[in-house]
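Trying the structure run again after the queue cleared.
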Amino acid sequence: MASSNTGALEYRSYLNEDDVTWRYGSPPNYDAVDKLFHEGRTKIWPPGLLEEKVQNIVKTWEMEMFHKVKLDELKSVDPAKYMFSLNGRKLLSLEEKTKQGGGYNTLLQTSLPEEFRCFNPDEETIDSSHQAFTTTFPRGFALEIVQVYSGPPVIVYKFRHWGFMEGPFKGHAPTGDMVEFFGMAIFEGMQVDEKSKVVKVEFFYVLYIFCSSSLDNINHRLMWLCVFINQMEGCLLGFN
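Done. Tokens:
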């Protein structure tokens, strides 16, 4: 991980703080994923614009959620009040997220039958899921804000995530293909400055099936039907 990592500071706060317990021993390096972001983004937001500020807030939130171990060292959220939900599911506290495995496990919750899961968050730890996805996407999984629909204290935005499957995934060979998906999110209880704290985060998106190309056609169609029904049900529940 040794690198200047200076570009990461352009998009993320609280990255070079002293006395932080980092999950993997040192601050994460964002050189590769920021390069991917610069090369593949569809929007370039001028500094100071609301969209640019929201983009930096989200990248900071992601960095802290994935890489800081101690809850009291989180600066982008209020640890005592923070709640998280995916696709209209039950709101989870930070402690509940940790018990669920945190990281990718929280973001890939699913009610699909186990036989249709290429990735089963119920069987993964925060470290095993991190290893799986950083192996599959060695350049990282870039994020950009496509549109902001409302400003603080309740920020609603559309995002785009993308990366290239240049490594194996759970026994499936790399394809080199781009994996891309769009979604919506709500960040609540904050202002667009470094002193504000997020107290509630809700994400809404259809989960992408990374290894669908290796499944037979029947299972592929059945699986996508399950994905559509389960995830759309979650989105409808979340917005009602």
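The mean pLDDT is 83. Worth checking whether this holds up in the mutant runs.
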